[in-house]
Amino acid sequence: MKKSVTVIILLVIIIAFGGSMVYLYQKNTEDPITYQTEKPSTQTIIKKTVATGSILPLEEVLIKPNISGVIEEVYVEGGDNVKSGDMIATIKVVPNLSALNDARNAIDAAKISLDDQRRNYNRQQSLFEKGVISQQDLERAQVAFDQARQSYEAANKRYDIVKTGTTKGLSNAANTIIRSTVNGMVLEVPVEVGNQVIESNNFNEGTTIAAIADVDKMIFEGKVDESEVGKIREDLALEITVGALENMTFDAVLDYIAPKGKEENGAIQFEIKGTLKKVDTVFIRAGLSANASIILDRADSVLALKEALIQFDKETKKPYVELATGDQQFERRELELGISDGIYVEVKSGITREEEIKIWNQVDPQ
Questions:
Q1: Which residues are registered as beta bridge partners of 264?
Q2: H helices of the chain, where?
Q3: Ramachandran angles phi, psi of 155, nearest 5°
Q4: Cα(206)–Cα(225) distance, rounded to whole angstroms?
Q5: Helices (H), 130-171
Q6: Residue 364 DSSP label
Q7: How many Cα atoms occupy the beta-carbon half-sphere of 262 within 13 Å?
Q8: Cβ distance 268 to 225 under 8 Å?
């Protein structure tokens, strides 16, 4: 039994020793690592961040009525071009019975007062001709009569307005014909014939009959995260891409950054706006989703390296590369770097265009 254990132990030792010899032999016969090299290149590097948003008109005018009623006819639809003064719709006034009755009663009361002042004036005039009263008394009667006549006329106009929505001499102030107040394109007409509309006044915004805008003046309106807002500033260039218009970009200028952010889904977002430069070759529809690449910095036609070739000193954290000095011989060279776009980084000093850079992290072929 003891002899068997001894034999087994010796066999294990022999096998382990033999395996070690095989491993060392294979290790010594492996080919040494051969590093490839790559030259710097000339690149245009753009450092940017992206904001999401949409394309909107710079100014959008909402056409609202100044009387309440029912839409009788609509003359335009979305996409129509209109000029200031063009007809948009016609409103049929549906009078309020209570207001109509009050206006009718006001006419009757004003008529009674007018008749009374007319009789008084005629009487005072007769007395003045007889020398009984003075010129001043006659003038007072004349003023009272004129005021009563004016009140009667005003009561009739109020009745007309309540009944028809307009009156003689006030066509500009209260009109059943709704007209455009600006030049532009009709974006939408949210009402139809038969819809009831409410007038716009100090207590009510009123019903929107049409939205009109100058589609030649468009803006990008979007939001950026709080982590990015500190990197941007007004007057930066924007590159706008619209999902519905493939392979096209539009130039814009950032001209507004909100001073206060708003929380959305647990993150603080800041509103930004940028004015698009006029484009004659394509029609950009209002409301299209878009992305804005905000150009933070730019370096045109500069010496650049792939970021993957850059190494950093473990202690000083300074960037460096290894330059080829001979066959698989390299020396370290520190660099001064500029901006990066995540793929290429600008090299301000440290190497030249013709020097070979060691690819230190190359992937071994399988």
A1: 267
A2: 2-29, 97-129, 135-164, 226-229
A3: -65, -40
A4: 36
A5: 135-164
A6: P
A7: 7
A8: yes
Residue 51 exposed, middle or buried by CB count within 10 Å (0-12, 13-18, 19+): buried
On whether both 126 and 156 belong to a single domain, the answer is: yes
Structural tokens at position 59: 């100014």
Give the DSSP letter of residue 201. Answer: B
Q: How many domains does the chain have?
A: 4
Bridge partners, 220 (sequence order): 55, 274
What type of residue is 270?
Answer: F
Range of the domain at 284: 49-57+215-298
Query: Residue 366: pLDDT band by 50, 70, 90 thresholds?
Result: very low
Asked whether the beta carbons of 189 and 209 are under 8 A apart, the reply is: yes
Do 188 and 291 have their domain in common? no
What's the CA gap between 297 and 96, in Å, rounded?
65
Can you say whether residue 325 is alpha, beta or left, with left for phi > 0 and alpha for psi between -120 and 50 degrees? Answer: alpha
Summarize pLDDT for 209-219 with one digit per residue, the tens: 999 999 999 99
DSSP state of 231: T
- Considering the domain architecture, whether residues 325 and 353 belong to the same structural domain is answered as yes
100 within 8 A of 162, measured Cβ to Cβ: yes
Could you tell me if 104 and 140 lie in one domain?
A: yes
Confidence of residue 173 (pLDDT cuts 50, 70, 90): very low
Residues 6 or more apart whose Cβ sits within 8 Å of residue 217: 57, 58, 59, 275, 278
- Phi first, then psi: give them for residue 31, nearest 5 degrees: -70, 140
- Helix 135-164 with 97-129: angle, nearest 10 deg: 160
DSSP letter string, 261-301: -EEETTEEEEEEEEEEPP-SSSPPPTT-EEEEEEEEEEEEE
Q: Is pLDDT at 172 greater than 50 in this prediction? A: no
pTM: 0.63
Selection from 211, 276, 285 nearest residue 250 by Cα: 276
Which of 240, 347, 236, 229 is CA-nearest to residue 284? 240
CATH classification of the domain holding 184: 2.40.50.100
Half-sphere exposure of 109 (CA within 13 A, CB side): 10
CA separation, residue 105 to residues 57, 68, 159, 162, 274 (Å): 49, 22, 10, 13, 58
